[in-house]
Write a structure and sequence with these properties.
There is one protein chain. The protein is elongated, with a radius of gyration of 26 Å. By secondary structure, it is an all-alpha fold. The longest helix is centred in the last third of the chain and has 35 residues, at about 165-200. The protein has helices at about 10-20, 25-35, 40-55, 65-85, 90-105, 115-125, 130-160, 165-200.
């Protein structure tokens, strides 16, 4: 066994030195695996990994596609249930964008709220233009609402005198009303897609 203290220092030269210490029957597959690391084809790497693992007597468990589909389906159902019951605009946007990502890529995604703009940008080429523009519009309203809430808290902390806060309060009320109107449309992006895909099956 070769001990390496810092795994970031394993360069291609270090790997070649390590290959020389392998037994002859496993040296060939390990050399192919090493050369596939510099390639750009993941399938080639995975096939080399399988042959190298076999040569070394390591059992690599294959992925269970049926189990993966079940986990993906359960995750999607859980997110859809959350979308149905939530009223928080930021959470609706977050859940909807994650669900749309899952619908279009068939991959599960766990992402914090700060990644929602990147998810929406990714979805631009994956969903119809009208749905994407609806998401972008809803996102801008959510940002306005969050900025308004932050300013309102700051104003409460300063405790200003008079009525200058009525103008921002009116604007925040308008944003809140727009968000309420658009929330059902945003939720329908994933709930309608769910119903139509269920009717197709």
């Amino acid at each position: 066994m070769i001990a390496v203290e810092d795994y970031t220092t394993i360069t291609s030269e270090v790997r070649k030195k390590m290959l020389n210490k392998f037994q002859e029957e496993s040296k060939g597959p390990m050399a192919k695996l090493n050369s596939s690391l510099s390639g750009k084809n993941i399938e080639e790497f995975l096939s080399c990994l399988d042959s190298a693992a076999d040569a070394c007597g390591i059992l690599v468990k294959k992925g269970d596609k049926k189990k993966e589909r079940q986990v993906l389906f359960q995750h999607r159902l859980a997110l859809i249930e959350q979308v149905k019951v939530t009223e928080d605009a930021a959470l609706v946007l977050h859940l909807t964008s994650v669900l749309l990502f899952q619908f279009t890529t068939h991959c599960m995604l766990h992402a914090p709220g700060r990644c929602v703009p990147q998810i929406i940008a990714f979805l631009k080429s994956k969903i119809p233009e009208d749905q994407h523009s609806l998401l972008v519009n809803y996102q801008s309203l959510v940002v306005k609402q969050l900025i308004g809430q932050t300013k309102q808290k700051e104003d409460e902390d300063v405790d200003t005198m008079g009525d200058p806060s009525e103008v921002p309060e009116k604007a925040s009320e308008d944003v809140r009303k727009e968000l309420q109107e658009l929330s059902t449309k945003i939720k329908d992006l994933v709930l309608r897609a769910r119903k139509s895909s269920a009717s197709e099956d």
